[in-house]
């Protein structure tokens, strides 16, 4: 978990730059409106001049979700590269009961037969 926190914190600035400079302009082209989809929202209340004072900013929320997904994917891929499963221990099969045993076993733990050590 510590690896995820460290890598996630270190890559947060990079991911924000990627989403802000590369992905956001492409999404803004695909959506209609002002062109900056991060400022999109629903105005709940307006002041006397008509400016919104209380806004649900769903554009900013979707931007943060996009950042989270990218950071999670990067941390997952780095962790997957670093942490590899341990190889299975070599085994042999008991000639009497056909159960799997450690290679260096001299007696079967299932049928207690004496095994060849050669």
Summary?
This protein is α+β, with helices and mostly antiparallel strands and 118 residues long.
Task: Reconstruct the topology from this structure.
Elements: H1 2-30, E1 42-46, E2 52-56, H2 58-82, E3 91-93, E4 100-102
Antiparallel strand pairs: 1-2, 3-4
Helix pairs in contact: 1-2
Descriptive overview:
The chain has about 120 residues and is an alpha+beta fold. The protein has 2 domains: about 1-80, Non-ribosomal Peptide Synthetase Peptidyl Carrier Protein, Chain A (Orthogonal Bundle); about 85-118, no CATH class. It is about 45% helix and about 15% strand. It has 2 helices and 4 strands, in the order αββαββ. The strands form 2 sheets. Strands 1-2 form a two-stranded antiparallel ribbon. A two-stranded antiparallel sheet has the order 3-4. A hairpin with a 6-residue loop joins strand 3 (about 90-95) and strand 4 (about 100). Helix 1 crosses helix 2 (about 60-80). It is rod-shaped and about 95 Å long. The two termini are about 45 Å apart. The model has no long low-confidence stretch (mean pLDDT about 80).
